[in-house]
Design a protein that fits this description.
Blueprint: E1 2-6, E2 9-12, H1 27-59, H2 65-96, E3 102-105, H3 106-116, H4 118-124, E4 127-129, E5 136-139, H5 141-157, E6 167-175, E7 178-185, H6 216-226, E8 231-235, E9 241-248
Parallel strand pairs: 4-6
Antiparallel strand pairs: 1-2, 3-5, 6-7, 7-9, 8-9
Helix pairs in contact: 1-2, 3-5, 5-6
Length: 249
C-alpha cells in the first residue's frame, strides 16, 4: 500500500492487496504523479548536463583548471540526480505492484545478481562462496532479485580490505516452515548503535562513500516482509556483517 501519511511523506505497505490511500487516492494515480514529477525534473537536469558538456568540450581552452573542475562537478551532480530519480521511480513501481509469485530457484537469483555486480567482484578480488544446493522458493523473482541484490551489493560496497582478502559467504538453511538465507561479509561492519536504523528509507551512515540514494536495505526489508518473511543483521565495527532473511515455504 502506498499512501501519504503526513505532508510530503510517502508510506509504502507491500501487502498483496489493491492499494489505496487514506484519502482514497489510488496507487496508480500516485505512481503517475511521481512519473510526471520525475519527467519534469529530468528536463532541466538533461539541460544542465548537456550544456555543461558543451562548455567542457568547446571552451575548455578558455578555462583554467579550477573552472574545468567546477564544470565537471556540475555535470557529475546532474548525472547523479538523474540516476536517483530513475532508481526511486523503479523502487516505487516495484513495491506498489502485487507480488507475482512462482517457483524460483534461489541459485538462479544469486547467479543473476553476481553477474550484475561482476565488475565490483573482479575489481575487489572478492571470493564468493555459494552453496550448490540452494532451494527453490515460491516468490516474486524480480522482487527477490532486488532484495538479494541489495544485500550482496551492500557487502561488496562496504569493504575496505585489500584486494584478494574480501569475502562473501552465502548460506541457506531450513528454518521452521521456510528457509533462512544469509549473506556474510568481512567488511567494515556496522556500529551497534545504528543496526536498528539501517533499514530506514534514505539512511546513509557513511556519506563520504557516495553511492545511490540509500534505499537498498529498505527495499530488501519491504520485499521480504511482503513475502511474509523477516530480515535481520548481526554486525560489529571491523568484523563484517551478516544479513539474514527468512523466506516462508
Amino acid at each position: 500500500m502506498l499512501y501519504f501519511d503526513a505532508p510530503g511523506e510517502i508510506i509504502i505497505n507491500t501487502v498483496d492487496e489493491r492499494p489505496t490511500t487514506k484519502d482514497n487516492v489510488s496507487t496508480d494515480e500516485l505512481i503517475r504523479l511521481f512519473s510526471v514529477l520525475s519527467h519534469d525534473l529530468k528536463s532541466p537536469i538533461f539541460s544542465i548536463d548537456g550544456f555543461s558538456e558543451l562548455l567542457i568540450g568547446d571552451y575548455q581552452e578558455k578555462l583554467d583548471e579550477e573552472g574545468k573542475d567546477f564544470l565537471n562537478r556540475i555535470r557529475s551532480s546532474a548525472q547523479q540526480m538523474k540516476k536517483v530519480l530513475d532508481d526511486m521511480s523503479h523502487m516505487v513501481k516495484l513495491l506498489a505492484r502485487p507480488n507475482a509469485r512462482r517457483a524460483t530457484p534461489l541459485r538462479e537469483v544469486v547467479e543473476e545478481v553476481l553477474l550484475k555486480y561482476n565488475f565490483m567482484v573482479e575489481e575487489g578480488g572478492v571470493r564468493i562462496d555459494v552453496p550448490p544446493d540452494l532451494p527453490t522458493v515460491n516468490v516474486d523473482p524480480e522482487k527477490m532479485r532486488e532484495a538479494i541484490g541489495a544485500l550482496i551489493s551492500n557487502a561488496l560496497f562496504f569493504n575496505d580490505r585489500a584486494k584478494g582478502e574480501r569475502t562473501i559467504a552465502i548460506e541457506c538453511t531450513p528454518d521452521g516452515n521456510g528457509h533462512r538465507f544469509c549473506v556474510r561479509d568481512n567488511g567494515i561492519g556496522i556500529d551497534a548503535r545504528y543496526t536498528a536504523q539501517i533499514f530506514d528509507l534514505g539512511l546513509k551512515l557513511d556519506k563520504t562513500r557516495g553511492g545511490g540514494p540509500g534505499y537498498g536495505l529498505y527495499l530488501a526489508k519491504r520485499v521480504i516482509e511482503s513475502h511474509g518473511g523477516k530480515i535481520s543483521v548481526d554486525s560489529a565495527l571491523g568484523e563484517g556483517s551478516t544479513f539474514c532473511v527468512t523466506i516462508p515455504r
